[in-house]
Design goal:
Number of strands: 10
Radius of gyration: 33 Å
CATH topology: Spore Coat Polysaccharide Biosynthesis Protein SpsA, Chain A
Low-confidence stretches: 155-163, 388-399
Order of helices and strands: HHEHEHEHEEEEHHEHEHHEHHH
Largest sheet: 7 strands, mixed
Distance between the termini: 116 Å
Length: 399
């Protein structure tokens, strides 16, 4: 008779392999069990995935896209426009450069240029640069050209009478076929698309503050204006300007103040939407400043010129008494006006000159684009110190 073999039970430490303790729990340390589990590949995979998930949760959140709730593909862009005005050859080139930047950066809005009615698009010679630029704006940049009677803007102004031509920007208030117009000062570098400003909450105007005048005054700056066109607003602004137009009121056209700013602040100081100046009101002179608290809005944040420039939508040229960027710098004045280095300034060992590099880069970019787009070089540097005539000339238009 065959004897059936009973399978041998595995040895369990401490059990003596007896039937009496057959159902005892194996006497193993918890550490031994954990080590055995960690040796399994799937445990490591789960652990790695968990760590990656924690890192992902702690990542720096990207800035939200501009107005993600608006489908730009469904917008009727014929209702929105950027406007410029040109009262001289230099400012005509500037306006064309602004429109070129807007097109290159993908803006979909319309473009409007106001210019003197005695100009035309008939190119009579290779030296007829004004007509060439007007034709370029119309044909290549899809700009609507609107001729204006300059006497409508400054009636009664005799020869040699000083007048702040920036009043011409008030014309944009009368373009009521548009729901909104963004008017930009043309002496600026446009750095990023600004189409999001067309979809601000309703307001007659939106403007950044002239932050360089804080805290003494909270004046609005007219270097960028988001306008809801209205004939009533246009009429009211022109009527408010009439006393100055006819010489019944003195006009301050200094480097720090312009008449259009005065008019707009008188009417909209308490009702305008205030735009953040970091994005929409940066001036080039900020890179020459030593105290940036007015720009930063606090006294604890560290000034970083590269970060500031990367956040800005545009930078406006304002470095009085240096002339505007289409005029060469007087070398004696430039030496005085260059941004100072942070360590050992003015010595062969100077360092920490990033402000200077960024500042010079802004001007270099403007002049390079002026040469490439308008085929124009900068004017020769004026004499220094300037005469009264130079101080009131277009080359030194106030910021």
């Amino acid at each position: 008779m065959a004897i059936k073999k009973v399978p041998r039970l595995p040895y369990r430490r401490g059990s003596q392999s007896s039937e009496d303790d057959f159902f005892d729990i194996p006497d193993e340390r918890c550490l031994t069990i954990i080590k055995r589990q960690l040796r399994r590949i799937r445990t490591w995979i789960v652990f790695v995935l968990f760590v990656l998930f924690v890192v992902w949760l702690r990542r720096e959140r990207p800035q939200p896209s501009t107005l993600p709730h608006i489908n730009y593909d469904l917008v009727d862009w014929s209702r929105y426009a950027y406007s410029q005005y040109a009262t001289s050859s230099a400012y005509l080139c500037n306006a064309v450069m602004i429109f070129e930047a807007l097109q290159r950066l993908g803006s979909r809005a319309q473009r409007v240029l106001f210019f003197p009615e005695d100009w035309d698009v008939t190119v009579e010679s290779e030296r007829d640069r004004d007509s060439q630029l007007l034709a370029m704006a119309r044909d290549k940049l899809n700009v609507m050209l609107i001729p204006i009677d300059m006497e409508m803007i400054k009636p009664g102004a005799g020869p040699g009478e000083p007048w702040d031509k920036s009043i011409s920007k008030l014309l944009a208030f009368g373009e009521s076929e548009y729901d909104r117009i963004i008017h930009l000062d043309s002496d600026a570098n446009v750095l990023q698309n600004m189409d999001e400003l067309f979809f601000l909450p309703p307001a007659k105007v939106a403007m950044p503050r002239a932050y360089w005048e804080l805290p003494a005054t909270k004046q609005l700056s007219s270097l960028l204006i988001v306008i809801e066109p209205s004939y009533n607003e246009y009429k009211a602004l022109i009527e408010a300007a009439l006393p100055a137009m006819y010489g019944q009121k003195s006009v301050n056209i200094s480097s720090a103040h312009r008449y259009d700013m005065e008019l707009l602040n008188e009417r909209y100081a308490d009702s305008a939407t205030v735009l953040p100046h970091r994005q929409y009101g940066l001036v080039s002179g900020e890179f020459r400043a030593e105290d940036h608290r007015n720009f930063l809005g606090n006294d604890y944040e560290v000034w970083d010129p590269d970060k500031v420039l990367s956040e800005a939508k545009l930078v406006h040229f304002s470095d009085w008494p240096l002339p505007k960027p289409w005029v060469m710098w007087p070398q004696k004045l430039l030496a005085e006006m260059l941004p100072k280095c942070q360590q050992n300034p003015g010595t062969p060992q100077e360092s920490g000159c990033r402000n200077r590099e960024v500042w010079k880069g802004i001007y270099h970019d403007f002049r390079r684009r002026r040469k490439d787009i308008c085929k124009l070089l900068s004017y020769p540097a004026p004499d220094w110190p300037p005469t009264d005539h130079l101080e009131s000339s277009d080359s030194n238009d106030p910021a």
